[in-house]
Amino acid sequence: MHKAYLLASLSVCLFASASFAGGTSAPFYVGGSFGVSSYDNSSHQMDNLDICKSASSHNQTCTSDDNDHAGHIYGGLQIGDSLSVETGHVNLGNTANYHYSDPIAIKQKTTGVTLTGIAKQRLSKASPVSVYGKAGVIRWSSETTVSSDNPALHGLKVSEDGYSPVLGAGVQYDINNNFSLRAGWDRYYDVGESSEVLEYNADGSAAKVNTLETDVDVISAGVNFSFL
Length: 228
Description:
The chain has one helix at about 1-20, and strands at about 30-40, 60-65, 65-80, 85-100, 105-120, 130-150, 155-175, 180-190, 200, 205-210, 215-225. With about 230 residues, the chain is mostly beta strands.
């Protein structure tokens, strides 16, 4: 996580340095948002032997949570009136969370460094309200951990990272020259690597743990501060 924050900070500094070196008057801004994340993981994605899917036939239960909280801190460089570039660090919370009554508990947490381009359009020339769209990339890092009374499963852990696309849209309200409020939706595509979290041997005696590939949607609200 420290490396992610360092990369985000260095990227922001580079954007700011480029702005001042080029003599442009485009402002630098920082912001933060907090909201709800949602992901859609089905029962057959817990394991390759469909243990979760067939839990009821063994008098067991298997459930999967589908939401958590998410936070995003970022810095941006305004390029003209309608374009900006942002980089930051996002914590998507849980991106997989299975509970099997045997018991087996699996949690996957995901963070990432983001780089996005923002296109913004005011509703009218004098309006403080703008709509925006964004597109970019996330370098995600996911960690999956397993706890169970089965010694072949308990303590299994894996960490993986990769790059995935990001899209988003929202609304921004400018309170004054320095402060603005933002509310929007972001989608992080294909976070994680595999189609199942657990890969059992054919006889079910042992398993390998993976990070689960999933799309994550975030609905959030936050505030920006611009250095003019």
